[in-house]
Amino acid sequence: MKQLPKDSQGNLLAYAFPGGYPIIYLVEIEGMVLCSGCAEQWLDEGNDTDLDFLTYYEGPTLYCDYCNTELESAYGDPDGEEDA
User: Fold this and answer.
1) Is residue 36 part of a domain?
2) How would you class 21 by CB atoms within 10 Å of its CB: exposed for 0-12, middle for 13-18, buried for 19 or more?
3) Which end of the chain is more exposed for a tag (fewer CB within 10 A), N or C?
């Protein structure tokens, strides 16, 4: 498991620095995708399942499995329809 990205107060980051790229959190065993706030809650609840993260550069919009927040990639979905 990688060390989770945290700010100076110990909170999980929602965006990578530098660059401001979105970060999503993954619960490896359950296959859930979480936003940074829900990932914090997951850890605070004492869950011992491995939590991982990735910088979400491109792909479709995902939704947090806890709060249903939209998690957009930095560059959009290369396989999605382009706006005209």
Assistant:
1) yes
2) middle
3) C
d(CA 42, CA 57): 24
Residue 27, pLDDT > 90, answer yes
The answer to whether residue 64 is domain-embedded is yes
Q: Looking at residue 74, what is its pLDDT?
A: 95
Domain that holds residue 63: 23-71
Domain count along the chain? 1
CA distance 55 to 66: 19
Evaluate if residue 18 carries a pLDDT over 80. Answer: yes
Q: Is residue 66 part of a domain?
A: yes
